[in-house]
Amino acid sequence: MTKTLICIECREAVDAGVEACPSCRQKTFAYVDQWDDANSVCDELLLTAALVRAGFRQGELSLIPVAGAETEKTLAACVQ
Ligand SMILES: [Zn+2]
User: Fold this and answer.
1) In the chain, which stretches have pLDDT less than 50?
2) C-alpha of residue 7 to centroid of ligand 1, in Å
3) How far is the C-alpha of 6 from the C-alpha of 31, rounded, in Å?
4) How far is the CA of 59 from the centre of ligand 1 (A)?
5) What pLDDT sits at residue 29?
């Protein structure tokens, strides 16, 4: 399974291990499966993060279709 690391803000692919996005300097990245649409994955992450910040509990949200450990980590970073 091939995964691509992308910047969640500008949706650019970045190299694993970079500290900040070369394009927009943001530091939140998400792993996206080759066949996933990067835009919808990032949009759902950002929307879920916004809802969690607004007081929804993550367990009650089913926006992210494939919530793996990496997605959970990205979401946690977005919520901060
Ligand atoms: Zn970026």
Assistant:
1) none
2) 5
3) 6
4) 28
5) 92
d(C-alpha 9, C-alpha 29), whole Å: 8
What is the reported pLDDT for 61? 75
Ligand 1 center to 66 CA (angstroms): 23
Separation of alpha carbons 41 and 19, rounded Å: 21
pLDDT for res 7: 95
CA of 14 to the centre of ligand 1 (A): 8
Q: Determine if residue 55 is left, alpha or beta; phi over 0 gives left, psi from -120 to 50 gives alpha, anything else beta.
A: left
Dist. CA 73 → ligand 1 center (Å): 18
Question: Rounded to 5 degrees, what are φ and ψ at 67?
Answer: -90, 95
- From the CA of 43, how far away is ligand 1's center (Å)? 14
